[in-house]
Amino acid sequence: MSTEAGVGVMGTKLGMMSYFETDGTVVPVTVEGFREGNIVTQVKTSATDDYDVVQVGYRRVRDKKLTKPELGHLGKAGVIPMRHLQEFKLQSVEEFETGQKLSVEEIFKEGDLVDVSGTTIGKGFQGFFFESFSFLYHNVGLIGLAIQIPYWWNSHTALGSIGAGTTPGRVYKGKKILGIMGGSKRKIRKLKIVKIDNEHRVVMIKGAVPSKPGNLLRITPAKIVGKNIPKN
After folding, report:
1. C or N terminus of the chain, fewer CB within 10 Å?
2. Domains in the chain and their CATH numbers?
3. For the segment 73-92, what is each residue's pLDDT rounded down to a tens digit?
């Protein structure tokens, strides 16, 4: 786990829209809303756990949605049942305590740079499809088509030869072939917070972020080495 520049919050992606600034400039933004949660459920210190971590819970759920160990953990902390628990590794956790409510407007302000993490949209198994000449995975184009031509009548999705059988007698590491596309964790760094709407409990972040509407997002202060993160 890498050290964060500061404690962050979790939210729910609502979608994207166009935001008009005061000078008329149109900015594409991702809108993130916040459900009940973002409460500190545990504070770990280097003295007891070998590293300084703040565990935060998000999104209230019914008791039957959680396991008994999860309910016991949250009950010991004296907080409501929450679906998501994530840890933020910090340089110091002295200012945090169990049960503390994290407020977005206190942690961030408009114009701040943030790192946003989420799970990319899963697109399943992708490969070569001759009918529509679609080569989605790894952006494989005409080279992939040339490989497929000998197998045109045998199978419309056959990969064909991917390496010599004599030398090197193996498939090179990193060979671009068919596979599962999407559904992986990604972080977009140094995105600007355009607007914080406390009334509607939403934050507008410039640009696109991983995930689809309704999924979980994690926002942390952007890491700038030498400024808020030590060079070592």
Report:
1. C
2. 9-122+184-221 (2.40.30.10), 124-181 (no CATH)
3. 999 999 999 999 999 999 88
